[in-house]
Design goal:
Oligomer: single chain
Number of strands: 12
Strand content: 15-25%
Largest sheet: 7 strands, parallel
Distance between the termini: 33 Å
Bound molecules: NADPH dihydro-nicotinamide-adenine-dinucleotide phosphate, oxalic acid
Strand order of the largest sheet: 8-7-6-9-10-11-12
Shape: elongated
């Protein structure tokens, strides 16, 4: 094990399993042993404490434990070395399951049936097929495209919005500022799978929600956000739910996490809350490819799944 050491730095969860799996093949440190520790060549991080990645003279790359990297770039002192993010079928499938679950629940009037059952009400709504509903995915990246395929297989009409023009079979695509409004105007259920960047911060506000199509087979528009909480404005979502701009919402992410106990979203009858658990990174699937990349990089191979720091994702 004379290869470069790995710094494992996470907050918010117990990294024991990550540590075990990484340590099977490389020497792992939970913090640098000294300022300017020259033995560390790779870092594996989730919300690392600010400043911990500075002064590592031989740091060759940073591996994000998640697909998103806003948690890394929030630390302005992060050195200018390549950042690798998670692109993995296991993660994509988890997210696709979440998206299909939430889309189907809204499509099949889950919220209404749960309320009816509480009051022992036997009433059947008009149920249309998936083909009558358009799901619009904001963010046609690895996760958005995987979810789109599953939704298409179920018969939904699928729209997608991205920064650059994308061609995805079966999906009606829109791009950039000019494409946003037409995309929203043709969307009944909005699924947000964007990264959090300087440009996307706060994008899901009241004005955006107003553009969704409300006269539809669901009897209103629906928001599903599994991207990042600071893409949305929690108060604008509450306002939109109150005045009927939105019919229902499924939220996995929030402006402040954990969602404060005082938030009105917790008890809102039209909101379904999950604790940022749509697609949790599983070390049993993700550590081996990370270590393989480190080994290959040591041997001179280029890194994959790199973050564009200028774009912020
Ligand atoms: P990708 O980088 O593969 O895709 C991002 C997509 O967003 C791309 O289509 C990109 O456009 C688009 N995009 C970025 N900026 C803009 C913009 N300004 N305007 C329009 N479109 C934009 O990311 P992933 O699909 O792998 O992941 C997406 C996000 O999901 C992560 O960043 C993370 O925040 C979140 N996530 C949440 C999890 C959870 O458990 N809740 C789990 C995993 C991820 P283009 O195609 O042109 O580049
Ligand atoms: C991620 C996440 O970015 O879990 O992968 O949020």
């Amino acid at each position: 094990m004379d290869r470069g050491k790995v710094l494992l730095s996470v907050s918010g969860f117990n990294p024991q399993r990550w540590h075990e799996l990484l340590a099977a093949r490389r020497h792992v440190l939970l913090r640098p042993e000294s300022a300017g520790d020259p033995t560390i060549e790779y870092a594996v991080v989730w919300k690392q404490p600010p400043g911990i990645l500075t002064n590592l003279p031989n740091l060759r790359a940073i591996f994000s434990i998640g697909a998103g990297v806003d948690h890394i770039l929030a630390d302005r002192t992060v050195p200018d070395v390549p950042i690798v993010r998670v692109v993995d079928p296991n993660l994509s499938k988890h997210m696709t399951e979440y998206v299909v679950w939430r889309v189907m629940d809204h499509h099949r009037f889950g919220q209404m049936y749960r309320a009816q059952q509480k009051r022992k009400i036997w009433r059947e709504p008009v149920q249309r097929t998936a083909a009558d509903t358009s799901v619009g995915i904001m963010g046609l990246g690895n996760l958005g495209r995987d979810a789109a395929q599953a939704l298409l297989a179920l018969g939904f009409r699928v729209n997608g919005w991205s920064r650059s023009e994308r061609v995805v079979e079966g999906v009606t695509t829109f791009a950039g500022d000019a494409g946003l409004r037409p995309f929203l105007n043709q969307t009944d259920i909005l699924v947000v799978l964007l990264p959090l960047t300087a440009v996307t911060h706060g994008i899901v506000d009241y004005a955006l929600l107003k553009e969704l199509r409300r006269r539809n087979s669901l009897g209103g528009s629906v928001l599903i956000n599994a991207g990042r909480g600071r893409l949305q404005k929690d108060d604008d979502i509450l306002k939109a739910l109150e005045d009927g701009t939105l019919k229902e919402a499924s939220l996995d992410v929030f402006e402040v996490e954990p969602l404060p106990k005082t938030s009105a979203l917790w008890a809102h009858p039209k909101v379904f809350v999950t604790p940022h658990s749509a697609a949790t990174s599983d070390p049993d699937f993700l550590v081996a490819p990370m270590l393989d990349q480190m080994d290959a990089h040591d041997g001179g191979a280029p890194l994959r799944d790199l973050v564009d720091r200028q774009a912020g994702y």
